[in-house]
Amino acid sequence: MIYNHPQPEYIDIGERPPHSNVWTLYLDVSGDDGWLRPYGKSEERYVIVGGVALTPEGTDFVSGAIPEVTYSYDVPEIKTHDIYWGKGVFCHLSEGESRRLLDDVVKILIRADPVVFGTIVDKEKMKWYYGDRAFNPLLYGFWATIARYNKFLGRINAPGRVIMDEDERRKEKGLKKTYYRLKIKGTSISENVPNSHLKYIIGDVGFVKSHECYPIQLADFVAYEIRLAEIRKRPSYWEAIKPFCDVHEPSKIPAGLNRTSTVVSYHIPHEVTTGKTRVY
After folding, report:
1. Which end of the chain is least crowded, N or C, by CB within 10 Å?
2. Is the pLDDT at 18 greater than 80, yes or no?
3. Pairing mode, strands 115-122 and 46-54
4. Which residues pair with 208 in a beta bridge?
5. Quick check: 52 and 116 in contact, CB under 8 A?
6. 47 near 32, Cβ under 8 Å?
7. Whole-angstrom Cα distance, residue 272 to residue 258?
8. How many CA atoms lie within 13 Å of 228's alpha carbon, on the beta-carbon side?
9. Averaged over 246-254, what is the pLDDT?
10. Between these two residues, 22 and 8, which has the higher pLDDT value?
């Protein structure tokens, strides 16, 4: 396991101008969506939905840069958890090589200039509060993340798409049902907050294999770095990634959650504390 590594310098990208191109949000998941005992068999308290929104130019850059990096380290793709732990096809890498590989990945992210999105769902507290009415944790994290993505698209007046790792295809029906529900009924689950119908997100939710879609591999990197930094409190690249978060306002999506909310959304680099809810 890699515990210490230097932080690459990141670029202050400043304010993004309005963009007419179609953005794409690439999403991956860290953790599983099962409930903890006695409600299920999961041993993982948190599930994280994280990813990167890229312009067509950013997608092209990532799709060219990641293959060069993986080829130079003789690995088929970027799987961040396995790189850290030296598992599977990454077992031949020394600790130094693994560290340099991850350094190269974060440098690609910086040059691609994405907008980073992510949501952590605390399954234990969510089940405790909502009981039998609790949403599926993965669908809840997906709901929160794409609703925030739609807000970003609205600010820059640009259309966008959503693509997920095919590993989540087993939840495809639920994810698409959630997506269409948001389109038709809106994102709000309370009368106290503004509603949104995801009007800036176009098309259907797509699913692709990670080894065939390099930006999905970057989304995998983001989701796992959030886990390392904010759940496990271990050294990570999150400080280098954080400046690329959507930084305009604290996330209140999904809306209507009270002070016992269990969702932690990473869209603001400074902490705002509201009861048991932490919004970044």
Report:
1. N
2. no
3. antiparallel
4. 165
5. yes
6. yes
7. 15
8. 21
9. 44
10. 22
Tell me the average pLDDT of the chain: 79
Residues in a beta bridge with 47? 121
Q: How far is CA 205 from CA 12, 59, 195, in A?
A: 31, 17, 21
Which of 191, 217, 154, 197 has its CA nearest to residue 23? 154
Q: Dihedral sign for Cα 62, 68, 70, 76, please.
A: positive
SS (H, E, C) 193-252: CCCCCCCCECCCCEEECHHHCHHHHHHHHHHHHHHHHHHCCCCCCHHHHHHHECCCCCCC
CA distances from 1 to 82, 96, 220 (A): 9, 11, 17
* Other Cβ atoms within 10 Å of 12 Cβ, number: 5
**Topology of 23-279 in CATH?**
Nucleotidyltransferase; domain 5 (3.30.420)
Higher pLDDT, 185 or 25: 25
pLDDT one-digit tens code per residue, 110-153: 999 999 999 888 888 888 888 898 888 888 888 889 889 999 99
Task: Tell whether omega for the bond before 254 is within 30 degrees of 0, i.e. cis.
Answer: yes
Alpha carbons 232 and 226: distance in angstroms, whole number: 9
Label residue 2 by pLDDT band (50, 70, 90): low
Distances (CA, A) of 196 to 36, 51, 110, 143, 181: 32, 21, 30, 12, 11
What count of other Cβ atoms lies within 10 Å of the Cβ of residue 195? 13
Q: Which amino acid is at 95?
A: E
Do 222 and 71 form a contact (C-beta atoms < 8 A)?
no
Structure tokens at 73: 């380290």
Strands of the sheet containing 160-165, edge to edge, are 206-208, 160-165, 23-30, 46-54, 115-122, 263-265, 277-279, 272-274
